What we know:
By secondary structure, this protein is an alpha/beta fold. The chain folds into 2 domains: 11-171, Beta Polymerase, domain 2; 181-323, NAD(P)-binding Rossmann-like Domain (Rossmann fold), CATH 3.40.50. Helices cover 52% and strands 13% of the residues. It has 15 helices and 10 strands. The protein has a 6-stranded parallel sheet, with helices on both faces. Helix 7 (152-171) crosses helix 13 (316-356) and helix 8 (181-193) crosses helix 9. It is elongated, with a radius of gyration of 32 Å. It starts with 10 loop residues before the first strand and ends in a 7-residue tail after the last helix.
Amino acid sequence: MSTTTSTRPGSLVLLGINHTTAPIEVRERLAIPAARLADATRTLLHQPGIREGLILSTCNRVELLTLQDDASEASSNQPKTKADLLRFLHEYFSVPPHDIQPHLYEFRESEAVRHLFRVASSLDSMVVGEPQILGQVKDSYTVAREVGAVSTHLESLLQRTFSVAKKIRTETQIGSSSVSIASVAVDLARKIFGSLEGKTVLLVGAGKMSELAARHLIQQGASSILVANRTQSRAEKIAAEFNGTVIAFDALYEQADRADIVITSTGSPQKLFGRSHGQHFLHRRRNRPMFFIDIAVPRDVDPRMNEVEGCFVYDIDDLQQVATANMADRSREAAAAETIVSREVDKYQQRLQSLDAVPAIKALQQRAEELRQAELARSQSKLADLTPQQREAVEALTRALTAKLLHPQLTALRESTRPKDSE
């Protein structure tokens, strides 16, 4: 597109690293705590040629979104802007450039827009469809606005980004199904009980995955945690972490029926719970349902306990199968989301290109109006005897003629900004 009619304030450049390009050892060296984000964004804005900027820093990525002066680019094949941003990363984090550069990716203009849309819509996340990333982008935007790093161009782009992310959440089911063992367990528990409010969880064993499942359950409303472990000190440590209660391991069978949800992850070579235990527990619970999440290998719960009405048993393979099926569902929804992103990128670029024609259209209209007024002024003596109504008619006639004569040129200008004919 001709630079004489462009209203673009500069070049859109995005530089970053993420979980696919850099190991945790590199990402953690560039991570920015929330308390330092404003300072880092302010420092980025003060770099040569940077007009606007935003920094997104999460556990899986650090990205610099910038609007830069066109003049800041070098004439060589290596854009100066990349070198400037690399220098910023080096100086701000005291990390040698050669430790960063192999892991960097760079996107410009429409590809930067596409990447931003994909990130905010969780299409570029480690777990596709996770909802946290949009909130993190919004937090970065808020900080950037507060320090004056976001104005006209990035403001428009980021507002469009949030709209696209919302559109994808609304029009697809990309985030509707759980894809981790812990979250699948929570979903199943919610289906069994309807609500987890006030439910009691019993941890049998001290595995990390069972702790994570318990944490998820509490976040979803479970009210209390009981902990039973062969090593008493370990049980006390976990109970303290969850503000729970320790149950002596040898009193497990007398106490287990207190729990609505039992999560087992012991290293026992024999099964801890059999079909008869389930019958006993349900009798004491007056047939209120009981959910067993068996994450142990070998299994802690005899699968025949499922035969007891009111007992629900899922082992690690069951949970993994549900998670895998959900992942396939997300993949299908992600494909639909990618289509939306592509369509929205095209619409955004067309909008930018239509804005590029605005100065030329205004200049042409202004010049035509000047010529119309000049011709009327030259004919003033010949029009002196006209009545006010006749003068008004002449004004209307000349305006109409000017508009008709301009119409083909204005149409051509607008058409010229479409992607298929951008020259």
